[in-house]
Amino acid sequence: MPNLLARNLGLNKENPLVMWIDLNSAFAMAEQQAHPSLRGKPMGVTNRWSKECCVIAASYEAKALGIKVGTRRGEAMAICPDFIILETDPPKYHNVYKKLFKILQDYSPKVQMKSIDEGIIDFHNATATLKGRSLQEIGQEIKQRVKQDIGGYTTVNIGIAPNRFLAKTAAGLNKPDGLNTIDHTNLIDVYKSLELEDLTGIAKAYGSRLRAYNIYTPMDFLNARESLLKKQIFKSINGYHWYRRLRGHEADDYETKLGMVGRQWVVKNPSNDDAWLRSCLHFLAETTGMKLRFRNVEARGVCVWMDFVMGGGFYDKKTYKTTFYTNQDIWLRVARLFENRPKHMKVRTMGLYLYNLSPSTRSQQSLFEDAKKADFLTKAMDEINDFYGSFTVYSADTMTGAKTVRQKIPFGGTEYFNLLLKRQ
Amino acid sequence: MEPTIIIDERVDVVALFKNKGGISTLAFPAKMRWNGREIIFDQLGMRHPTAKGKRMIHVFDVSDGVNDYRLEFDAEGLTWTLVAMIEGGKRA
């Protein structure tokens, strides 16, 4: 019967060879791993402790009470007066990330970290490493290795499927510590147990759009015609990708093109003090430059933005004809835009980003002596900071900023942790 | 409040070094003397390295079964520092 259905619906019948590994409540669990007294208790972590700080990761015990990512401390304490909140400890999470990455790399050359707490192993062309074992057995082994290498309290959810979308869906079942496979034999049963918005990539807006075409469940979505998805609902190639993705065919095996790099900062004590803001922004510009060069790209555009305490904000950007990548060049351009802001307004949040990125041409020598000097200086600073630690040397102008702006734990991306990986 | 109590004091530590096992458990503090008391650790929560410039600091999160302690070993200066503790049962 499943085979007949699979044939009729065009489901992918190949052996599931994609594994999705998801660290359960990563930051909160890392803290519970480190602190036995916090285990089994509702707790969470925040970037910087304050009265109104937000939970950026909650333990399963906290989640069971309704405390989740984004819950303010006050709300969390109202729900559970015993709620414990710790400040983030980036080196700790970096260590967990590094260990997880190392475990995954032992199984296939095709490993991709999708975010700081989840990664994919693609076993296509790597079946030799299986040594006759099933992916379920490999999954159990990975769970054991996580306990051995990271810690006995740490658990992961593992999903196995023929494509990335279904593997992630499988990893979302039976949390925490689940291990599930989705293939053509059980795909229908899994879809029947899910809501539309349970599907990765279908948030509220897409859900509403699908419902407008009488698609109310994942099964309705699966049964929708390709032409309806492509021409009417998504009005793009995305409709075709969804048609294939839902059937277990790969539609997500691609590297995302880097569009921009940048940093933002919630100003500790909102201010309009020019020198202070300038130093903090300069620090943000230097760390952005570090990220830019780590990605081996150069930029042609720069944008500076701010939100003000009194409401409203400032946003200015400029695109240049030639690329730039040195700290001096970035700051020169950022400082010009910074000058255009309304100076009397107190700044609550500020940031910058670099755009129009292209592969670096740093190996090509410039004809101009000044450009050569700036290049050598940047290279020397990067090498010193690589060897002796971040911000061993930095511009004098950023001294105040370096003391004030904290390195935050970013959501989603792996860039920050990869930068640290390179440095150790 | 955050339950962490900052201490930041040098302490006497007896550490164990094993010849076998995973990197996480090859070396760890077994007990320390602090405030005139001997505290015996019965659990290693996590160890992670963190570079402070050229110095490598190994952070050990350990427990005596009641409280959690954060000990830092400076691999260059060969010093142990009790950085912070969380009292078991203490809540925000």
Explain how this protein is built.
- The complex is a heterodimer of chains A (424) and B (92).
- Chain A is α+β, with helices and mostly antiparallel strands.
- Chain A has 3 domains: 1-13 and 184-254, Orthogonal Bundle (DNA polymerase, domain 1), CATH 1.10.150; 17-182, 2-Layer Sandwich (Alpha-Beta Plaits); 260-422, 2-Layer Sandwich (Dna Ligase, domain 1), CATH 3.30.1490.100.
- Helices cover 41% and strands 19% of the residues of chain A.
- Chain A is built from 17 helices and 13 strands.
- Chain A has helices at 2-9, 26-34, 60-64, 73-79, 90-105, 135-149, 164-171, 187-192, 204-211, 218-223, 226-233, 237-246, 274-294, 327-339, 369-388, 399-404, 415-423, and strands spanning 18-23, 43-46, 57-58, 84-87, 111-115, 118-122, 156-161, 179-181, 260-271, 297-308, 313-324, 347-355, 358-359.
- In chain A, the strands form 3 sheets. A 5-stranded mixed sheet of chain A has the order 5-6-1-7-8. In chain A, strands 9, 10, 11, 12 and 13 form a 5-stranded antiparallel sheet that branches. In chain A, strands 3-2-4 form a 3-stranded mixed sheet.
- In chain A, strand 5 (111-115) and strand 6 (118-122) form a beta hairpin.
- In chain A, helix 5 runs antiparallel to helix 6 and helix 13 runs antiparallel to helix 14.
- Chain A is globular and about 65 Å long.
- Chain A starts with a helix and ends with a helix.
- Chain B is an all-beta fold and 92 residues long.
- Helices cover 0% and strands 64% of the residues of chain B.
- In chain B, a hairpin with a 2-residue loop joins strand 3 and strand 4 (37-40).
- Chain B is globular.
- Chain B starts with a strand and ends in a 6-residue tail after the last strand.
- Classes of the chains: A alpha+beta (424), B mainly beta (92).
